[in-house]
Amino acid sequence: METDSERVIHTETEHKSTPKGTEHAALKEEQRKAAAAQAAVEDLQRRLTVVEATLAEERQKAAEAQQALTEQQRAAVTHPETSERTTEQMPGESAAFGLMPLVGFRGVDLFNVSQQIAQQAIQQPPLLLKHYTNFMLEMGRVMTGQSTVEPDAKDKRFTDEAWKTNPFYHLYLQSYLTWQQSLGAFIDDADLDKKDADRARFVLSLFTDTVAPTNTLLGNPAAMKKMYETGGASLVKGLTHMLEDLANNGGMPSQVNMKAFQVGKDLGISPGAVVFKNEVLELIQYQPTTPQVYSRPLLIVPPQVNKFYVMDLSPGKSIIRYLVGSGQQVFAISWRNPTPQQREWGFEAYDRAILEAIEAVRAITANPDVNISGSCLGGMTLSTLLGHLAARGDQRIHAVTFLVTVLDTNVESTMGLFATRETIAAAREASRVRGVVEGQEMARVFAWLRPNDLIWNYWVNNYLVGKDPAAFDVLYWNNDTTRLPAKLHGDLLDLYETNAHHAMAGMLCNHPIAGRQGHLYPE
Questions:
Q1: 509 is catalytic
Q2: Given 376, 424, 484, 500, the catalytic residue
Q3: Contact between residue 138 and residue 178 where contact means Cβ atoms under 8 Å apart
Q4: Alpha helices in 166-263, H assignment, sequence order
Q5: 272-445+471-512 sits in which CATH class?
Q6: pLDDT digits (tens, 9 = 90+) for 422-439
Q7: Sequence-distant (≥ 6) Cβ neighbours of residue 88 within 8 angstroms
Q8: For residue range 157-209, what is the model confidence (pLDDT) as tens digits?
């Protein structure tokens, strides 16, 4: 048994050893914390090194873009005769709204509509007071948290959770939507005819979309998060993108990384060869991939303002590959990119060129007729040729397919809102003077028809968040534009004014153009 003296000695030993054990454990804990802190410092240093390298790279890009922009501006001063295109591509009245494709709308048209809206407010004080009162009542509900105003479920601008969970952003969102809806309600009740009301809604949408909170740094939670995560590097990168676009893209945010693809390497790679060409086009025959093919060939007519490989994008999206894999004999036209020297090419020049291509296809395949497909402007050109062939009773075309082709210009659309004799005449005169219409000019105006999707979306992605534009083959093709001859542009304006596709009447290749009820038939 343990004696009392032994218990005393044992207890004293325990009391003496306890402080030493505690000190040892505390020392180990401090060493662990020190190691963790050292690792955190090293990780932070690595991250700072990456950020500094990124910032240095972006500063270099920004300097190069600034230099390019400076040289461009210097050239505009010293060589004004060579700066016409540069001026057209810079932001401003002409660049931002330019010529509406085919029809045209100008900055002065937008000003006139804005003036008309203001006149409605001045001439109808009771209406203005009604909508102002409704706006203030709804704003009261917003401020007290009782408003039920929410963005449309399809509106991608406000998908970040902060718009729902953060009180500041939720208040900002509801205030913006209330203001936007109040303006729309005023136009709905104003004493305007339908076309004037549609013009007013379009102009207001341009304004309200431009000042949306998501288009600013503080009003965009995703951009604020990215700035915090990157230590500001995202803003530097965004500024670099902006300078590059000012120098190379007419001041518009780039929709796609134009360095990500190469035609012949990534796009337009289905095996084929040029088998015929004339002054206007080259004809490509694609190599069959099946043991047997259908006897009747297919000829593809692409739009004149874009390039042939729309039907031969990346392998998983290539219609050409699908067609040849299905036993079709496929031919496609590749248009020459016109210069002012080809300003006189109109429907007749293009239709004659298509006829020559059809004859080449018939000779190569030994078939009496062909199937043919036309898209967009290529489809509109093809429709005039079909009318010409129908008038002659020519049966060389067996069947036709139209893709996104306007055949009835009386159908209401945003493009037609500003179509007046004055805007059409201005568009015709502008292309006549220059000899061509730039494809980028038309693409820019198409973008302003859907600014949230085609402009502000990329403004946020490229400039505020600092991401690189996406590598997307369809957008690459869409931005790889060509020019339109002045004569063809004028012919298209004539079609718009007379709606000649709907009730065909006219002369082509010295023969009348025939048609019935908006549809063209071989007779």
A1: no
A2: 376
A3: yes
A4: 167-189, 194-210, 221-230, 233-248
A5: alpha beta
A6: 777 878 888 889 999 888
A7: 94, 95, 98, 250, 438, 441
A8: 999 999 999 999 999 999 999 999 999 999 999 988 888 888 889 889 999 99
